[in-house]
Write a structure and sequence with these properties.
Bound molecules: 1-O-alpha-D-glucopyranosyl-D-fructose, calcium ion
Mean pLDDT: 96
Distance between the termini: 21 Å
Strand order of the largest sheet: 11-10-9-5-2-1-15-14
Strand content: 15-25%
């Protein structure tokens, strides 16, 4: 049977967080020339699509998720000529590139926002400016921001307030204004015409604020019922599809927070077409209590149930265990004592579920959470804001640090560990953020030399996935297994593969009572006992009929 899949369903995506990937000129900050120098590495890894986190001109209050100029590259990362060279060289190697489209908000240093501060400006209505309550002293409503605190800031000049769901340096755009929609259409065309293959759309399900009424009081995100996944958002996405995206061979993946499977199906549906895939966050919430700063013990069974639910609910998932906002998966769902086994087990999971897998830089070598010891080493705006919010609660300084340490987005943002040298092969200068001291042994150079390294295992799995259609678009069915063991089969045209993942440090009894061939595993064949799964055992089996 002919495969009828789109190219973005056949390939593996690799997310680059440019600031921390590879620094070519030695100023301590990753850059475009650095990325170009690693294209061969990515090609050898076997991925087919690169997602670049933002490199547009930005004051970087949120490391580039605050864009001041969508049409130019920030000098810290290079020039437009560098970017064009990157697109061209990647293309020559058969690698597609998607960019981050951050259009829920701009930077407060974007020229339109600066203009909009003048009440009489035609740009006033590009943003969400309102009179405050109580004679202008209090914000227009009770909404709270994703980064903690109020979602409004007051500008003394006009005496009015502007909305920002993130930091005050990230004012929200007004998507009720057709000129804003037109502005975004033009930005998309500009980059698609340069040869990029699509967009990862930042917090795209927040863009449309249906009303600015007070929200029901909540522990987090008071007001969210007025802007999460609204009808206006669906309509806008369908519009962008019809007026821009349909003309290009491209795909979009939406970063969609707090969505239900039903909403996800609509966002990824075809009538009308909106996005191609969405990142949902439910599996990122399994080890937290209401908010991410309140951690609870990780229970594999919960993760398994959530993953299984989304596999069943959506035809095609955007699969991920890490990104630049999340702690490292091996530190979170794996185990330090079984670092190698658990990193490979998680890799097996990522690369054998149904959907498009996204690898975050460093995940393929099993990079771990940072080893920082205090707040002064943290750069992330979110961590600092939350740390300050926590100060108002009756918790000790030690506890406060512990909460930040486990959850900080900087866990994912320490430099890529290329080798064991002083700058980890990331930089010849002083890195903008601390390098994990475990780079002495967790690094690409070391793992390239070992045939059984985490890196080589990822390469092997990516290759298997590309060679075996059933692993890409076969059906998914969960198979009953003991607690903490995730087992499922993928079937296509009578070809059947079974994936067995022990997600715990305990040996588990699990009888696989058929003749079978192990086609990949994180243990060697001699460790295989068909009744006992060793800690974090992972295998892909092809039953013999
Ligand atoms: O993230 C949106 C988001 O809701 C979360 O990931 C958030 O950053 C936090 O982890 C919630 O606790 C996107 C980007 O991925 C993130 O880097 C940006 O800071 C944010 O949007 C604003 O653009
Ligand atoms: Ca640099």
């Amino acid at each position: 049977m002919k495969e009828a899949l789109n190219w973005w369903q056949e390939k593996v995506v690799y997310q680059i967080y440019p600031r921390s990937f590879c620094d070519f000129n030695g100023d301590g900050i990753g850059d475009i020339k650095g990325i170009i120098s690693k294209l061969d590495y990515l090609k050898q890894l076997g991925i087919g699509i690169i997602w670049l986190s933002p490199m547009y001109v930005s004051p970087k209050a949120d490391n580039g998720y605050d864009i001041a100029d969508y049409y130019n590259i920030d000098p810290q990362y290079g020039t437009m000529a560098d970017m064009e060279e990157l697109i061209e060289k990647a293309k020559a190697k058969g690698l597609k590139i998607i960019l981050d489209l951050v259009v829920n908000h701009t930077s407060d240093e974007h020229k339109y926002f600066i203009e909009s501060m003048d009440k009489a400006s035609p740009y006033r209505d590009y943003y969400i400016w309102r009179q405050g309550k109580r004679g202008g002293k209090a914000p227009p409503n009770n909404w709270t921001s994703f980064f903690g605190g109020k979602a409004w800031s007051k500008d003394s000049k006009s005496g009015e307030w502007y909305l920002h769901l993130f930091s005050p340096k990230q004012p929200d755009l007004n998507w009720h204004n057709p000129k804003v929609v037109q502005m975004v259409r033009e930005i998309m065309r500009f980059w698609l015409d340069k040869g990029i293959a699509g967009f990862r759309c930042d917090v795209i399900n927040l863009i449309y604020k249906t009303s600015l009424a007070d929200g029901k009081k909540r522990l987090i995100l008071t007001g969210s019922e007025h802007y999460l996944t609204q009808d206006g958002c669906h309509k806008t996405l369908a519009d962008l599809r019809q007026t821009v995206l349909n003309e290009y061979d491209c795909f979009t993946v939406g970063e969609t927070v707090f969505i239900t499977p039903m909403q996800a199906r609509k966002l990824c549906g075809t009538n009308p077409k909106e996005l191609d895939m969405v990142f949902n966050f439910e599996h990122m919430e399994v080890d937290q209590f209401i908010v991410k700063w309140f951690k609870r013990k990780f229970k594999p069974e919960k993760l398994i149930n959530v993953l299984d639910k989304w596999q069943n609910q959506l035809d095609w998932n955007a699969l991920y265990l890490e990104n630049h906002d999340q702690p490292r998966s091996v530190s979170r769902f794996g185990n330090n004592a079984y670092w190698d086994e658990s990193a490979k087990m998680l890799g097996t999971l990522l690369l054998t579920l149904r959907g498009t897998p996204y690898i975050f830089q460093g995940q393929e070598i099993g990079m771990t959470n940072f080893d920082f010891t205090d707040m002064s080493q943290i750069q992330d705006v979110e961590s600092h804001n939350i740390y300050n919010v926590l100060k108002k609660l009756p918790i000790t300084k030690r506890k406060r640090w512990k909460m930040i340490k486990r959850t900080s987005r900087d866990n994912a943002r320490t430099p890529m560990q290329w080798d064991g040298g002083a700058g980890a092969g990331f930089t010849a200068g002083t890195p903008w953020i601390g390098i994990n001291s475990n780079h002495s042994y967790i690094n690409v150079a070391a793992q390239n030399k070992l045939s059984d390294s985490v890196l080589e295992y990822y390469k092997k799995l990516i290759k298997l996935r590309s060679e075996i259609p059933a692993l890409r678009h076969g059906t998914y069915t969960r198979i009953a297994a003991p607690a903490g063991v995730y087992c499922y089969e993928r079937i296509l045209n009578g070809e059947r593969y079974i994936i067995v993942l022990n997600m715990t440090a305990k040996k588990s009894k699990f009888n696989i009572d058929f003749k079978s061939e192990i086609i990949a595993s994180n243990y060697s064949n001699k460790d295989y006992n068909k009744n006992i799964l060793l800690p974090y055992y992972a295998m892909i089996i092809k039953p013999k009929i």
